[in-house]
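Chain A, query sequence.
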Amino acid sequence: MATNLDGVFHCSQAFGRPMLSAGQGVIANIASISGMRASLLGLDYGTSKAAVIHLTRQYAAEWSALGVQVNAVCPGPVETAMAAKVHSAAIRRDYHDAIPLGR
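Chain A, predicted structure.
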């Protein structure tokens, strides 16, 4: 939570305040598909990313009228060493097969 949620909160505050003063700006937060759906072995990660999605919605609701656009990007699975530890080869194949570009 300290990295995934608190980090987004503090950066949004630090960079958002000058944008609010200027009456314009864009913040793009990085969340995850794991914040949109539950999965095995993802309790802490998924919960923190769901919180980022909601935090982003809150900022968007509060700051849009003041000229600051706030969005979240929710990428799907990425082939990393960490993903290999959490997801079986079969699960990773299923993710890959569901990606239209196949990468």
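The first helix runs from residue 2 to 22. Residues 2-76 form one domain.
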